[in-house]
Fungal-type protein kinase domain-containing protein (Candolleomyces eurysporus), 588 residues
Amino acid sequence: MFDQCVDLITQHPDEFHEKDSTRNKVTWADITHCWELEISKTLDKRHLARLDERYDENVSPVTGEAHGHRCLHASKDLEDVRGLKGELSEHFSVSRVDEPEQCSNTRKRPYEDDSEPVSNDSTGGPNNKKRKTEEESSEPNLPLEVQCGLYGLELLCSAWDRTHSMVILLRDNQLSIRWHDCEGCIATSYIDVVAQLPLLVTMILLFQRLGTRMRGQAGWALQAVVDGVEVKYSVPADALSDRGLTGRWPIATTPLVHGPSHPSGLTNGGNIAATLKPSGDLFFKLSWRDEVRLDETHIIQTAKERAKYYLGEHAGDVLNHLPDIRHSESDPRLSTGLIREFLGISKNGARIPSFMLLQKLHSLDTVEPADIVAKMWKIIRCHYLLWQLRIANRDISYGNLMVRSTNNGAYRVVNDFDLAAIIMMTPSQKYPIRQGFERTGTKAFMALVLLLADADERIQHRCAHDLESVIWCLAWYVTQGETGASWQEGSYNDVGFVKGGWIDNIRPKVLPACYREGTEQLWTPLAITVYNWKGRQIQVFTHETLQYSDKANVELIDSQLPCPKRPFSEEWDWIAFKVKEEDIREED
């Protein structure tokens, strides 16, 4: 077989390349871990002679501890890497990395002379060759830690069910392991692979014996009971999230369900032929939620229970606009806190994977321009009532406002409750308790007050902030997102200034360049609403006036974009709705 391949390559290269193009290529999904190597000095017999010495047993081969000094550091933001620009610098989180020369705890027998002799050969010494190569190379050399981070990110993005990645950095004879997951990076201190050869051998043996889960492949057996029927399903291989090195890693896609390929369910031979086909009525969602946050399913269920109890006959104004969850579960076995707890480092910020099957939803782009205002008001009403029921969504965005088709028509749905909060229904507690993540949401749709506030400023998330997000979604719909490319880049303050400048430059009587066809009549009242809203919120932000009531903010929107009238039997004064203190249940 080998000889045939050689003959094919040497004698028929065109035919070989044609066949090669049809072969299964090796992708990042096939790689279990990566190595990053750097050679800056040449080992000589002085270094290798140490292999004959007795290994220092004071160094633990399991934990890497030496004299009570751990070789592991908790993750923190990458602040020491200079010159790295763009989004990577914003998301890259890596633990402090000791330089090899600083790892005194791993170097039990110092070299007699660690200095590298300079070659006197001006024509071909290894050092001279290295310098020449560096001078001729036009490629910028990234710091090794950054390159390891890029390898880790490639592995994390290679498959939808990738839970973590491992990258090994070998600098000369100094080795460190980096573990990347959605919480950040854990990096070991360097070990000397010569002085501590048993550690290297142990590591190699362990890597050979790692199962698929330890290699970062979750291998979930996806099945659920939907309407009393067991459903086995899969997720398309190309369903990849736009992952950073940290975050929720959300994925939303149409699952592939098992079903017969022949209309009758039987093949010509009489056997059932199982195939995978996109589901016609289900929607799959996966995210790595923070363990301190409430489960999304629990929040939605609580919202439905409160709506039924407190709204009575008007509960449909909330229930019709919440996701219809068919199945949900979390996998605490893959919590990012487990490895940190095992290693004795802080597990604050641990995340666990949670996935759901929901009734299939459609993009907001499927709504006709003539219907968009009416549909948007249903979302405003649902959102407003949820706040009165002490359910705060806190992540209203264009992608989270979707459409559900039913036998009774199409309903706008607030889809994402990952960042939502349940507030106790007591008079003294009107807003979510501060837990360090009040500035939540998607930048392009966040309220200006949240974007422009100082990083250390205490901001209570309010109903008005989510109402403003709905307005930004409407602006995105009209402009088709063309004006919002810069609304997603940079810091919160950067995006806030860009969006504020956009408001200052719009003209109510002049259509934007990329407006959606059919929204011509909508643009003028929308532009006036956005401008008036900004002026009101800036007054609040600069403490020129008190907070406007939720009712006053809704009425501001209604003044330019009137809420469509409903049939008389469905009309009620929902803006005036409040839960009376004496009606609050004990469990709420």
Q: What stands out?
A: The first strand starts at residue 34 and ends at 38. The chain has a mean pLDDT of 77. The radius of gyration is 29 Å.
